[in-house]
Design goal:
heterodimer; A: Rossmann fold; Rossmann fold; 3 domains; six-stranded mixed β-sheet; five-stranded mixed β-sheet; 20 helices; 18 strands; B: 193 residues; alpha/beta; Pyruvate-ferredoxin Oxidoreductase, domain 3; 6 strands
């Protein structure tokens, strides 16, 4: 890139800048690596402030998706961002938004995390896109990441359909130069042409669904002429290569002059362009599919029986079945020379992430573990956040981490089974994301569970975003029906350890729902706050 | 000219600042750049690494292939060894020898340093001590950058300009401290190549 004409942006930032320049009126999200920086970029943008673009955090991905759909209903452009597992939370409104359709342009960004750098699985969002039958866009570099947002909003408004925008970790967190367009203005408020379009009563939903099925062939036509789907000819027809996302860069890396001898089909827009695939199948002896994530295209081409067309990729071991790709894996798949540096010396040890020194969770875990020490181990259900690190040494204080909010409901299920007491450990932000409804279930059943809501006043794991429940946690619990006598706010500090253990033991013995709120600010958040304060002086 | 650089350290040690300074200097010379970072969970006391690629030609991959990095620049000795599989046969390791010990099983530091000395091309320096001596104890990362400066394929002055740009907002004093740290690292490297 050239410094004179281009702006250096992370993939995430390029998407955010693209959204600003494409005329969004709002961005909705719950923080989640590797998607967080998209929304943060808009929050920090002067342009966004001046133009009143909504960007505050949502309580979870479902509320974010629904709010964005509401903005689209009103005729304005909206973007909603999440990490891949967030799309599970937002799946209900997402799938149904394909049936209602959009009014103002609507883009749903889902950031996949192959190799699970900071996630509990490596699910591929393209499967969701196919499930919902919406067009999918997938950039291979930062410039495309930017350009595709404009394009995606146009596509969305042309067909009144939400567009799924899929990225992966490396795309999200890699920086390069991007040439920007002139910003266009936001849409005016405009009611949907059909005021019953969003009423998914069966009679209307059936009609809308037929409409979606009909539009699917139009989406195929769009893919055939998309500027993001390219068929590049090559002399050596012994093999054709279908490639998408960052895998395209890994392919090119293996050809220093950038001339791949084989025909290459680069896919950036789905449904995949059928005619181009047919052309490759006709002229090449075999097809190598190089895709980041699940073998989505590969399975589609191979079919169930796998007879006929010779397709190579992740399913036959040409590439690994799991984990993210890299230039070396692609070299091996192409039968090219692989390179490797020196071996890592035998003395190497891991340096896993750990709770910060001074973290309030440390005191909470030591208190809880001591309160539980006379009971059989293995009764602490936990959740997603920094405190998940409590599973590791030296704490070894928790026994589960499944999905946002599952600590409370799993503890209830275990208590229903007779495992009493059962404990849930959940953070403040995770509690308001998906813990509150489970707590209501427990209250209604008077389940013998003890819930620790670790309140550090922030969404710490993703870098310290505002936590939607700050200042409201005990009121929420009271409102859900937890008895006031069994709600305790404690200070997770060494000097209160004995007192905290006593309270925990008492509540563990109580045969109903107790909530204990260890409350102390995240030390990283304090540090950040102090620096800001110092800077302003 | 093309340089593929692995930047390594522990979260909070300042590898992103080094990347920003080299990146700025490269862009000022009209070069292409790709930089892949690690965000999120890995920041919490864990190991961090960044792939920085600068070139006069367009860059394809966001990741540097194994066995092809021109250098590993590390602010922590153990971390410099973690990424050796990326290093090309002619590549350099430029690393701090002052350990960041936040794990219970950190190996004997002398053994770590011995392993660094086994790498054919290396510059190993106590950047913390040198930074302190230069009156800039917080700038160990910039000392390391100074020690890496002979290998970056760009004029030393370009890095100085980038430091002036990067730290300019923090005042002339901070700029000077960092320039001194850069120089101290450079002098060490010149004596040990």
């Amino acid at each position: 890139m050239n410094a004179m004409q281009k702006t250096l942006l992370l993939g995430d930032e390029a998407i955010a800048q693209g959204a600003l320049d494409a005329g969004i009126s709002g961005i909705y999200a719950y923080p989640g690596t590797p998607s967080t920086e998209i929304t943060e970029f808009v929050q920090n943008s002067k342009y966004a402030k001046e133009n009143h673009i909504h960007s505050s955090w949502s309580a979870n991905e479902k509320t974010a998706m629904e709010t964005a759909l509401g903005m689209s209903y009103a005729g304005k452009r909206a973007m909603v961002c999440m990490k891949h597992v967030g799309l599970n939370v937002a799946a209900d409104p997402f799938i149904n938004s394909a049936i209602t359709g959009a009014n103002g342009g609507l883009i749903v960004v889902s950031a996949d995390d192959p190799s699970m750098h900071s996630s509990q699985n490596e699910q591929d969002s393209r499967v969701y896109g196919k499930f919902a039958m919406v067009p999918i866009l997938e950039p291979s570099n930062q410039q495309e990441a930017y350009d595709m947002v404009h394009y995606g909003f146009d596509l969305s408004e042309k067909y009144h359909i939400p567009v799924l925008y899929r990225i992966t970790t490396r795309m999200a967190h890699s920086r390069s130069g991007v040439a920007l367009k002139t910003p266009r203005s936001q849409n005016e408020i405009r009611m949907p042409d059909d005021l019953r379009q969003f009423v998914l009563l069966p009679a209307i939903a059936k009609r809308r669904y037929k409409n979606l099925l009909k539009d699917h062939s139009a989406f195929m036509e769009e893919s055939a002429v998309s500027p993001f789907n390219h068929y590049m000819d090559g002399q050596d027809k012994s093999k054709g290569i279908i490639v998408c996302g960052l895998a395209y860069n890994y392919l090119l890396e293996n050809f220093p002059d950038r001339n791949v001898p084989h025909p290459v089909l680069k896919i950036g827009q789905y449904p995949i362009p059928r005619k181009m695939v047919e052309k490759m199948a006709d002229e090449c002896s075999e097809i190598l599919v190089v895709e980041e994530g699940y073998p989505v295209i590969e399975e589609l081409l191979k079919g169930y029986l796998g007879r006929g067309l010779k397709v190579r990729g992740r399913l036959d071991g040409t590439l690994p079945r799991d984990g993210e790709l890299n230039p070396n894996l692609v070299a091996v798949a192409l039968g090219l020379h692989d390179t490797m540096g020196l071996a890592v010396p035998g003395l190497m040890v891991g340096r896993p992430p750990s709770l910060c020194s001074g973290c309030p969770h440390i005191d909470s875990f030591y208190g809880l573990s001591e309160a539980l020490q006379d009971l059989t181990r293995g009764r602490v259900f936990s959740d997603i956040g920094c405190y998940t690190l409590g599973a590791l040494k030296p704490y070894e204080a928790i026994n589960s981490c499944v999905d946002m909010g599952a600590s409370i409901t799993m503890a209830k299920g275990a208590a229903d089974a007779g495992m009493v007491p059962a404990v849930a450990v959940i953070g403040d932000s995770t509690f308001t994301h998906s813990g509150m409804t489970g707590l209501l279930d427990a209250v209604n059943d008077k389940s013998p569970i003890t819930v620790l809501i670790l309140d550090n006043g922030t969404t710490a794991m993703t870098g310290g975003q505002d936590s939607p429940g700050t200042g409201k946690i005990e009121d929420i619990c009271k409102g859900l029906g937890v008895e006031e006598a069994h709600i305790h706010i404690i200070r997770p500090l060494k000097k209160f350890h004995a007192e905290n253990v006593r309270i925990l033991k008492e509540e563990l013995a109580y045969p109903g729902v107790s909530v204990i709120i260890p409350r102390r600010e995240c030390i990283v958040a304090i540090d950040k706050r102090m620096r800001e304060k110092f800077k302003n002086k | 000219m093309k340089k593929d650089i692995i930047l390594a350290g522990v979260g909070g040690q300042g590898i992103i600042s080094i990347a920003a300074i080299i990146g700025y200097a490269a862009l000022e010379q009209g070069m292409f750049l790709k930089q892949s970072e690690i965000h999120g969970m890995s920041q919490r006391g864990g190991d961090v690494m960044s792939n920085l690629r600068i070139s006069h030609h367009e860059i394809a991959s966001d990741l540097i292939p194994f066995g092809q990095a021109d250098m590993i620049i590390s602010i922590e000795p153990l971390e410099s060894l973690r990424y050796l599989p990326y290093l090309s046969p002619d590549g350099w390791v430029i690393t701090n020898t002052q350990p960041f010990n936040n794990i219970p099983n950190y190996p004997e530091i002398q053994q770590v340093v011995d392993e660094i000395h086994k790498v054919p091309h290396h510059i190993a320096l106590d950047a913390d001590a040198i930074a302190k001596e230069a009156g800039s104890p917080k700038a160990a990362n910039i000392v390391i950058l100074g020690a890496a400066s002979p290998f970056l394929g760009m004029a030393y002055e370009k890095l100085e300009d980038a430091i002036r740009f990067t730290f300019g907002k923090k005042g002339e004093n901070i700029v000077e401290l960092n320039l001194k740290a850069l120089k101290a690292g450079r002098i060490f490297a010149d004596q040990h190549i």
